[in-house]
Design brief:
globular, single chain, Rossmann fold, alpha/beta, 7-stranded mixed beta sheet, about 20% strand
């Protein structure tokens, strides 16, 4: 199996995505999506941004490498009465087989395509399927950022074996120079690319330590980190570090809830 597919089919990312719904809807409302637009959501998961786009009247195709998330997305669309406007297919963000050139008014990828292993192919494919006058929007985590997700990944990496030779960190999508280089090779001039920091908020009905345990049980990268830490006899150390992180960043004013913001790089590309 494709290692990227195996990573995201591990566990059940829908359990994490449930804490991201509000920010997904808020982000989509900023993107100028109107009724009748065609929208592609890459690395869509179970529809955190795809379904809100369909609710605005767009015709949405969600593509994800993980078959379980595609199935969950189609189920959510059916339950929301959006199956006619929002469908999910399994596919690779670096090779969008069967999708014609210039097919979409908006191409989105919020913490999705950044994890695909061939970033230059991803940029090229996103540009290829966007119509002239259309727009690409990515949300990418930022390396070494002090907020939640970058720190989860950084802490997890410290307990994990080194990546294989040739591995390109997904966090490089959070570096503006890499964004410009990748889209530049796809034919986008620098003035058509905008990068700005934005905030996503995780909202979890439970304590920060319970939220850590949800990541441990259901989020592929964290699951792998705990498996590696277990082999070293250090799983308690990893959990202790993550609980301290989640507790320190929790902004909830209420007991037994977690409200944790995370900074990301919002990339907007105007395709001409």
């Amino acid at each position: 199996m494709n290692p990227n597919q195996a990573l995201w089919e591990k566990g059940d990312f829908t359990r994490i995505a449930a804490s991201m719904r509000g920010s997904g809807e808020a982000l989509v409302r900023k993107l100028g999506i109107d009724s009748g637009m065609r929208v592609l959501d890459l690395g869509c998961g179970d529809g955190t941004t795809a379904l809100p786009a369909a609710q605005l009247g767009a015709d949405v195709l969600g593509v994800d490498i993980a078959s379980n998330l595609v199935a969950a997305g189609n189920q959510r669309a059916q339950q929301a009465g959006l199956a006619q406007r929002c469908r999910f297919l399994q596919g690779d963000a670096g090779e969008l087989v069967g999708i014609e050139n210039g097919s979409f008014d908006r191409v989105l990828s919020v913490f999705g395509a950044m994890f695909a292993p061939r970033p230059f192919d991803v940029a090229r494919e996103m540009v290829r399927v966007t119509r002239p006058g259309g727009r690409i929007v990515m949300g990418n985590w930022i390396p070494n950022d002090p907020t939640l997700v970058a720190q989860i990944l950084k802490t997890s990496a410290a307990y994990s074996p080194p990546p294989p030779e040739g591995f390109v960190s997904p966090m490089t999508w959070g570096v503006e120079s890499h964004v410009h280089e990748r889209f530049g090779q796809a034919g986008i001039p620098p003035e058509a690319i905008t990068c700005e920091r934005d905030t996503y908020v995780f909202e979890f009905m439970g304590t920060p330590s319970e939220f850590v345990d949800t990541f441990r049980q259901f989020y592929g990268p964290t699951m792998n980190a705990f498996a590696a830490a277990e082999q070293q006899g250090r799983s308690d150390d990893l959990r202790r570090e993550l609980v301290a992180l989640f507790e320190s960043q929790n902004q909830s004013q209420y007991p037994h809830t977690a409200v944790i913001p995370a900074t990301f790089l919002r990339v907007t590309v105007e395709v001409r």
